[in-house]
């Protein structure tokens, strides 16, 4: 006789349990301290970037607009995983409700998809600024920038909603212990009683298509930028243009290299890459870019660096005068 079909309502567990870093419980305290420090830097740094750009009219330009949106996305990305990770590493409480688990999963995937789109938008901004400087204001109007941001967000939602739906509608009837620090979709899908291959394949294909297409367009943009830069007669102009683009390239490397490594390492499995290495790579991929992005932009972007210095120097004096 055939068994009864899977009943999603009956099979759904009320709670999942996140184990943290499998095989490295002795390192949890140091990981908690490290993540807390990085998260604090990410919150303060990105908040400072947003505040400086918002308050200074001189920074109301397309490049800084996209940087401001990127800082907000970084805050959301880090906040979706780090507080729960620190709680797991310090108290050992890895319980997370079914709905909270898939909400976290959705925010992780959506913010990463938005971030890659923003990096493409920022590359396009640099292309227009360097290759078509006389038409910069006419091409990148506030309406165009808003439209690009909305399009990037819609693309992330349309692409990542099916993934969360596929995984959340799998039948879970066995152990509900997730061998990860957050609700990473492959780690959660492995717990299902049904074949998780459709959701895993969708994740791999969608990530490869989105990131692959964005990287191609970014590469084309920077190829045109480099041609235009080395065609300039002034060495100072060349160095200034390369310096401006250098921060963008650094941020892209921070995002794409560990991100794609995390995706493909998870597919290779623990037979090739140890499980604790996979989990650490996935954790750092979501924390390192939000931590270092504001530092890179703050140090390499002259206008932002000056405004941050001015803000930090004036605030204590203003406070004293008010007192």
Automatic annotation (TrEMBL):
* Subcellular locations according to the entry: Cell membrane; Membrane
Q: Which Gene3D superfamilies match?
A: Rhodopsin 7-helix transmembrane proteins (1.20.1070.10)
Q: Please report the stretch or stretches of sequence annotated as the G-protein coupled receptors family 1 profile domain.
A: 45-297
Q: Which UniProt keywords apply?
A: Cell membrane, G-protein coupled receptor, Membrane, Olfaction, Receptor, Sensory transduction, Transducer, Transmembrane, Transmembrane helix
Residue ranges annotated as transmembrane are: 29-52, 64-86, 106-124, 144-167, 204-225, 246-267, 279-299
Which InterPro entries did the record assign? Answer: GPCR_Rhodpsn, GPCR_Rhodpsn_7TM, Olfact_rcpt, OR51/52/56-like
The protein's predominant localisation is membrane
Which GO molecular function terms does the record list? G protein-coupled receptor activity; olfactory receptor activity
Pfam family of the protein (one): 7tm_4
- Bilayer topology: Multi-pass membrane protein
An annotated GO cellular component: plasma membrane
Record function comment: Putative odorant or sperm cell receptor. Odorant receptor.
Please state which protein family the record places this protein in: Belongs to the G-protein coupled receptor 1 family.
Its protein name is Olfactory receptor
Gene assigned in the entry: LOC105311362
